[in-house]
Amino acid sequence: MRYVFTLILLMSATLAGAADWEDQQVFNPGDGRQVLRVISNTDTSVFLPILEGYLAKNPDVSIAYFVASSQEVYERFRNAPEQFDLVISSAMDLQLKLVNDGFAQRVENVPHPSWAQWRESLFGFTREPAAIVINRDAFSGLAIPRSRQELIEILRAHPDRFRARAGTYDIRQSGLGYLFATQDARASETYWRLMEVMGSLQARLYCCSGDMIDDLASGKLAVSYNVLESYVSARTDIPETIQVILPSDFPTTMMRTVFVAREAPSFQQAIDFVKYLSATTLRGPDLDRFALPALGMGANLGAQSTITLDPGLMIFLDDLKRRTFIAEWENAVIQ
Amino acid sequence: MITLIGGAAILTVVLFLVVRSFSAQIAQQSQDNVLGASARSILDAAVIRDGQVEVDFPYASFSMLSTPSDDRIFYVIYQDDKVLSGYHDLPLPTLLDDPDTKFLTNSYLDETVRQAVVSRQLVGAGLRTRITVSVAQTQENFAGTLARISRNALIFGAGFFCLSLLLALWTTSATIGPLRRLANSVAQRGPKDLRPIAKPVPSEMAPLVSSLNTLMGRLGQSLNQSEEFIAEAAHRVRTPLATVRSHAEATLHRVDKEDNRNALKAMIRAIDESSRAAGQLLDHAMITFRADHLERHEVDFAALVDDVIDRLNPIAEMKDVEFTTRGDRPIIVSGDPILLQNAVRNLIDNALKYSPSESEIAVELRAAPSPRLILQDQGPGFVPEEIETLSMRFTRGRNAQGTVGSGLGLAIAQDVAMAHGGALVLENRKEEGACVTFSL
Is A102 within 8 Å of B59 when comparing Cβ atoms? Predict the structure, then answer.
């Protein structure tokens, strides 16, 4: 264990400013081993089974795993692309922009479905819907909302019960929150009405799904919007009054994506990792290790269509567009 | 043939290049159309609000650029000379005041990109500004499309080439085939077969065949005329000769002076020779005519030979020459009895002429392998160098001096043998004398 700490310290010193990572760990450390450096916005605990599965097959590789928010993953990688081998993030738009701007290298001949990849570089490996999550205690005597529209009606009808007890992403901080917000806004005007209602209830804003789930569990929040369903399912420390609702009007489902950095020092290991990840999520032998919703073989896509990997994703990353969108969002939410 | 294939190859290459460049133009144009639409959709979204330029461009501006090859997209939005948003270092041409969308091929981030540039004047309250939008896209899909089109054009071209090749082969064989058949049928004809060509030929060759037929007709006519002329001439010569001979013989009886008698004898000899030649010319003309239109009857060849020997026996007895006849009999053959008789007479006559006194002529008849007559005499035989040429018309052997002859006997026998599908073979016997085999 001491080795691990020393190594972490060493690595931290070399990595850009040894900045404050949410988490950073080295797995399977050892002298002379090729180090695969992964920058990710996925919690270590969630991703651990996959890392272990890969290491079991490649015992002579060690993995340095760095966790940051999706926006930070984007910025830190963009500022020092040569310091990482693999980039994993749930912010599909930011990932697509990095690939578009030439930061990725191709991984050829991966039998990955075409709808879940872009340029043979960016590979989606999970399918995670955004959900309405409620604490049933706060809904006693009320019908459980099944769609955004019903949620709006309930919130409007009971402003006192939900004042300061509704939560959602602060899209200015969270890349994933911004992606969900823009995709919702594309799909329906309902999103704006919901934001206005939440704004009028002095909604709480969060940077991350984890904090929102914590507050739901403690009862501080009665309802939160656009929480990752997978994060709730992965938690074992929450009361059973927490209920996940997949909105029936339209689903917003994102794919967690991975790409190999163009200047990856350990590109061979990175490519192997991508292939392992693709095989696993497509019902490979290690699927039971997968703590995240696997891609499956393109089954029931109609019911749960994902945000598509296409250049349109970059629209909302445009400075002007982002400024306009955030201004509109602030108008609605912050009152 | 080579010309046809070469022509097809050149056509194929030209076709390939034309199709490829044409398709490349179309593919480039379709990429340009989408790029232009994308740039204009961004430009159209530009508005001035509260003195500030806002560009709230739609999602479709970029998603319409989605290609199967997932081409990369770059864009930049300028307000006058200031970058509002997008990729700051995207190269941009100096813009003139032109409402049309401009397209150019550029290099950006180590990639070849196709770029659309469009510009518009915005007028707001107290603000007059020019917005320029450029959208660029890598050309991987375009390259893929081009490669696919090239491959298809190549396959198409190859198919076209093969088809042309087959057509060329077909055309050539259709043209050459009848020509070759015609040449064969002319080559296989007998030396005297001058009938017109009746086989059907392609209409293109009809003039050739008809002029060939005319030529053969004229040739046949002129041959006939000369045969007729010879027969007529011989006939006209023979009758007066017979008259002259009888006068000469009558005179011989009346003349006593030895010198005059000798002169008359020489005269009679010369007359004999001339009338014999005239007779053989007549025979030959008749044989030539009959050989062309052979009339076949069932004939006993052995009886025919016996008959000829009987007729010539008086002359043989005068020379003390004896015939010894042996062999198969009867020998039934299918042939023209007059021709056969003529040929056999000529041959036996020849043998008699060259046989010395008190000698023997062996006549042998055989039915197998084909009907044949073998004559062996005890004369001087043939001069070996002359055997090949003796049976040609008017050719006489060097050792024939002193004998009466026209040089037509062997030629007549050979013509008859050939008309019946046989041959005349001349040999020298091992001991002494000549051996003539006349087979049918």
Answer: no
